[in-house]
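Sequence only, no structure available. Ideas?
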Amino acid sequence: KTYLVGIGIDITEQKNIENELIEAKNEAEKSEEKYRNWFEHFPHATFIWKKLDDDFVMVRANKKAYEESNG
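Reply:
I predicted one. Tokens follow.
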């Protein structure tokens, strides 16, 4: 005789959560790309600063800032 034994586990909820996380990641990436594009093409010199101890350090500048500083 041949016997078959198996165990089934419903992973529907796990897959739903996984799909939600993937969708959220994709939305965050779209939002970041939109912000980065806006920042780079903003018509005024724009800088991002980070506070480091008692000082500030420039982290990023857009294209217009570089154009104005080199021109």
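Strands lie at 47-52, 55-61.
Hope that gets you unstuck.
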